[in-house]
Write a structure and sequence with these properties.
Elements (H helix, E strand, L loop, with lengths): L22 H36 L6 E5 L7 H12 L9 H13 L3 E11 L2 E8 L4 E5 L2 E5 L5 E6 L9 E3 L16 H13 L8 E5 L9 E5 L4 E5 L12 H15 L9 E3 L6 E2 L1
Parallel strand pairs: 1-3, 4-7, 7-8, 10-11
Antiparallel strand pairs: 2-3, 4-5, 5-6, 8-9, 9-10, 11-12
Amino acid sequence: MAKRRTAKTKRRRNPLVLDRGSLPRRLIRPGLWVVTISGVLVLWTLGVPRLATYASHNQYAQTIEIRFVNTPAWVKDDLQASLRTTAHAQLTGDPFRRADLVAAGDALLRTGWIRRIRQIRRVTPELVQIDAQFAEPFAVVRDADGDHLVDDAGRLMPRTFPVGGSAKLIPIIGVELDRPAKPGSLWNGADLTAALRLLRYVNDKPWRNQTAAIDVSGYLDDRPMTLLTDRGCEIIWGRGPGDQTAGEVSTEQKLQYLDYHHSEYGHIDRSFPRRLDISGPVVTGQ
């Protein structure tokens, strides 16, 4: 007769069934990590704004100096003072307010004196440094209200002279389209664009001072552009550089005519009192 087994069979644990006694031990360690990380995030969220507020309060500037860097030589003290006032009006003493710097840059661009802000930064709570690209005065456009300053692209700058009040800049007269409403805006018109292109050549010539004005009256109706000399002669130029008609000589040829007149006769009008036509292959005058 077979002998009965008396040893108790050891119960095997089903891995798919959780033991109620072991459940807390399995969950407590991840739970502590979740609680710890959540606590750190809450403290960070609450603490950083308070820290910034504390630092801002303790570094609040009573006075702010605004300093322009890399300014052109023509930007004088009175203009810089005006621009500093414009920027200063946008700033608070809070060194952590980036919105102040953005507002100051936008205000400066609206003046029409500045084409681009390269950098504006708060060096210290009391010092703001501005690196800006200034719009360069290039010509004046004359209308019934005076001589209005423009840059080389035809953007209106915020300065108007009495007629003839800007001796260093050659006036452009006869522009058909009205002046823009605000500084920094482009003064549109193919007539003004053509005159500005011509000025890029004239400004480098030794006879520049003999040019009293560039007249574009009727240019939009296909009339020629003319140079008015300081002796009252009207030099017929023709279309603007790069826009010549088939019967015209090149811009380079026209400039050679004037160079020759200046060197041989002492004046670009060649002593003709009324009119000199240099637009074609043969120069004629009266």
